[in-house]
Amino acid sequence: MNTASWSDRRVGVLGLGRSGRAATVLLRQVGASVYASDLADNDELHRWADEIRGPSVDVDLGVHDDSKLESCDLVVISPGIPPTADVLQAPGVRQLPIISELELAFGFLEAPVIAVTGTNGKTTTTAWIGSMLERAGLRVGVGGNIGLALSEIVANGESLEWVVVEVSSFQLAYTERFKPAIGVFLNLCPDHLDWHGSIDEYYAAKGRFFDNADAGSRWVLNAEDEGVLDLARGRPGEVLHFRVESELQKAESGAFLAGGMLMMSRSGRQQELVPREELKLLGTHNVANALATSLTADLAQLPTTAIRDGLREFEPLPHRLQPVHERDGVLWINDSKATNVASAVNALRSMDRPVVLLLGGREKGESFASLVPEMKGRVRSVIAYGEAAGKIESELGGEFDLLREEGTFEDVVRAAETTANAGDVVLLAPACASFDMFRDYEERGERFAELAKREVS
């Protein structure tokens, strides 16, 4: 890790969630002077601040000090701070270079990077790739928006053969040199419009994934998503496609689903991988994730036997179409990670039983009406809750049996329990962020699972 150029630099870190704290630790480790701040002020942050403060690290909680930021040479920004945040509008701050924690950490990495982006499926695919490489005996770091921040992987100082990183639009928006050895782009649909301000800005941020491509770049792309193909068009590098609804074209190399079998076609030779029914994950979208994972592992030179074993053995991640309980003939499924409409669509497509659907939370500027085609014939009842309940009711109330629940999340689960019949699924696929009631989607999912098992009626 080259640290020579940092000893005479002062760096601001805005936001002290996991990535901001990791960036601060890394910057201290490489000899930079750091000013770190967060508008939050709680016991956890106080404990961390007391440990990290020192001659080279200044920490403010409950405030961002413009004058201290203006003395910095560079600002590292956390994903929770949107471009419209007041602190970024100060004249002296607006003139400073701003990068994401992803960009900071990438500059210190020596191992090649496999980067996974897209609107949905990033965490599952990142974990699946990492698991497959680790099972094959490779030394792998897995992080980004999953588990460790990338700066933590760097600071740990391990000798790695690959780093697999989940990459969000928030991180990509503030990158300059980020360049994956293998880039996986799963899908593209509107999301995070509350942060980016418009669809165009969101897509532009995602497009930065390809900005530093060259002839040595390798891309694994969804051939059935025109948005992905548009962003990748004309970019240099080797391209492999994956398809679920159609077989590969003659000129394509990649992976596809044919007759219930996952297939891979490389160098003009087709290979069977595993039958779809042997995957432990629900849903067609997870078949797409499996195909993308297989191609990535092949590019990393894993033998086909290791790819097959990795496909069969990977377990569903928490909060992603995770069955958490079944009683009285009702199956409770936690898909709390379905924080946008497209992800909720995927969840619905995975259901083969009548659904009592829990929709709600803090909406992201999307229309819930686009759920209607997938809900018809699947959803028996909707429980609308949280800040978005009124909008959900106005857009879906005339189409489905809908109950607007104004109470606590416990009341929401109780209403679902009362509504569900034997043979139904109670599906938490909120299509919204969790921040009106919870710290994050994980806390929401854990509470749902707890209540489902507790019998709240």
Describe the structure.
The chain is α/β, with parallel strands linked by helices. Helix content is 34%, strand content 23%. The protein has helices at 18-29, 43-52, 66-70, 91-94, 101-106, 122-135, 150-156, 169-172, 193-196, 199-207, 226-232, 284-299, 304-313, 341-349, 372-375, 389-396, 409-419, 441-454; strands spanning 10-14, 33-38, 57-61, 74-77, 98-100, 113-117, 140-144, 162-166, 182-185, 218-222, 238-243, 254-258, 261-266, 269-275, 322-327, 330-334, 355-360, 379-385, 402-405, 425-428. The strands form 3 sheets. A 9-stranded mixed sheet has the order 7-8-6-9-10-11-12-13-14, sandwiched between helices. Strands 15-16-20-17-18-19 form a 6-stranded mixed sheet, with helices on both faces. The radius of gyration is 23 Å and the shape is globular.
Quick description:
This protein has 18 helices and 20 strands. The chain is α/β, with parallel strands linked by helices.
Low-pLDDT parts are: none
Strand content: 15-25%
The helical percent reads: 25-40%
Distance between the termini: 57 Å
Using only C-alpha atoms, the radius of gyration works out to: 23 Å
| Mean pLDDT score | 93
Largest sheet: 9 strands, mixed
Biggest β-sheet: strands ordered side by side in the sheet: 7-8-6-9-10-11-12-13-14
Shape: globular
SSE class: alpha/beta
The number of strands is: 20
The total count of helices amounts to: 18
